[in-house]
Design goal:
This protein is an alpha+beta fold. The chain is about 60% helix and about 15% strand.
Amino acid sequence: MLGLALAYLRDRALTTLLNVLLLALAVATLAILLLFSSQVGNRFERDAAGVDLVVGAKGSPLQLILSSLYQIDAPTGNIPLESLQFLRRNRAVAQAIPLALGDQFQGYRIVGTEPAYAHLYGATLAEGAMFAGPQQAVIGAEVARATGIGLGQRFVGSHGLAEGGTGHDHAPFMAVGILRPTGTVVDRLILVDVPSVWDAHGIEHEGADAAHEEHDAHSNHAAGCGMEPEITAILIKYRSAFGAVSVPGLINRQTDLQAAVPAVETTRLLSLLGAGVDGARIFAWLLAGTGGLSIFVALLQAANAREGDLALLRVMGATRLQLFGTIVLEAVLIAIAGCAIGLAVGHGVLALAIGTFDTLREVGISAWLLHPGELAIVAAVLGIALLAALVPAIRVLRTDLAVTLARAR
């Protein structure tokens, strides 16, 4: 049956190719949507774990969450350093971790923070030690892999969060530690202490004198800056459930700061993305349905055209079941080819998009992870192909041998 089915498919190669491409397009679209939505949802959930509240400058709460928690947007601004001590004095706050943003190295953000930030995501050192002084940096696993930075290597951060920008040549960093992969946002970051970020921008701060003695050029750069030491955001973890009631209200009503709840903003973001994903998913299933209809029409026409051939095969000893199976096998072969090409195209297009768009890379989407849902897509497309083949196959099954041979003669 397999040889006969392949021969029939080769006989109408153009129609077969078009049906395969139609199904491949539908499978590729569904695979891309599945990989994108599942990985974004999982990544957002992991990156927000352990953070109850994000405090930053006034502006969009969603932008504050994206920039400070997921590291994929521009910050809403800076806030006074005193805000950190103000929140740490609040009894409802168990932990307050500062973040100072503004620089990057080869597109990977340099985050001024404390070692507690790495511990928040369960990050452990694969090599070296945690940063403990000026211009010392701990490198995330993905950053180390992509840039090739090793222990003891010096590198210069550039101003701005997008690749490029003016380099802070006066304040190079030295890698003192490499983190193990965590599957979280930390993998894509370079962690330094907050004063190192101020030093890179020439901002005078308490305790800067000792560092300036080691970096004369830096000292000269800092002298004329005149900016105050600030931070970008604070990640808050509550001591108890009472913190969720009291702290956000206190910040939003009685200070010039903004408090954003990650769970609320992430849910809002995923709902916005979900509407677009659902629309594209419906379109993809329509494509798959169209592919099935095309297979149905092609097989029905082929069955009509081959009535004489199939009757002759019956005379030569082929059973009704074998002819039925040949028609079904044609549809299955088309569906298998469409699924194989579609999955390969889907993963390839996603890889190309990740290489082209920085935002997808910053979110941490991987093009080559397999999702169990892809098996469901393949099963559904095979089911559509089988349904499309059913009517033509039954028609062949019910063909009257004598009438067909008489008509063919």
